[in-house]
Amino acid sequence: MKNLHILRSEPTPMTLKFIQATSNDEGNEQFKLYQEDIDYNRLINEIFSSDRVICWW
């Protein structure tokens, strides 16, 4: 199962623990919206190719 974690801001240590707890070894991808030069086409492709999408605000 592929998980996509979309991060709006830099994650806190607690957020990172939650991400690790909800992730599995088969697929775990993070997309960081707080960085410059966001590739929105890649984000859309990642969303539709993932089994689960979790947004962290």
Structural notes for this entry:
- By secondary structure, this protein is an alpha/beta fold.
- It has one domain.
- It has two helices and three strands, in the order βαβαβ.
- The chain has helices at 13-22, 40-49, and strands at 3-7, 28-32, 52-56.
- It has a three-stranded parallel β-sheet, with helices on both faces.
Short summary:
With 57 residues, the chain is an alpha/beta fold.
Topology (SSEs and partners):
Blueprint: E1 3-7, H1 13-22, E2 28-32, H2 40-49, E3 52-56
Parallel strand pairs: 1-2, 1-3
Descriptive keywords:
57 residues; alpha/beta; three-stranded parallel beta sheet; 2 helices; 35% helix
Q: How is the biggest beta sheet arranged?
A: 3 strands, parallel
Output the helix-strand order: EHEHE
* Gross geometry: flat
Strand order of the largest sheet: 2-1-3
Q: In total, how many beta strands?
A: 3
- The proportion of residues forming helix, as a percent range, comes to 25-40%
Ranges where pLDDT stays below 50 over 5 or more residues in a row are: none
- Strand fraction equals 25-35%
The assigned structural class equals: alpha/beta
Q: In total, how many domains does the architecture comprise?
A: 1
**What is the average of the pLDDT values?**
91
Question: What gap, in angstroms, lies between the N and C termini?
Answer: 23 Å
Using only C-alpha atoms, the radius of gyration works out to 11 Å
Count of individual helical segments: 2
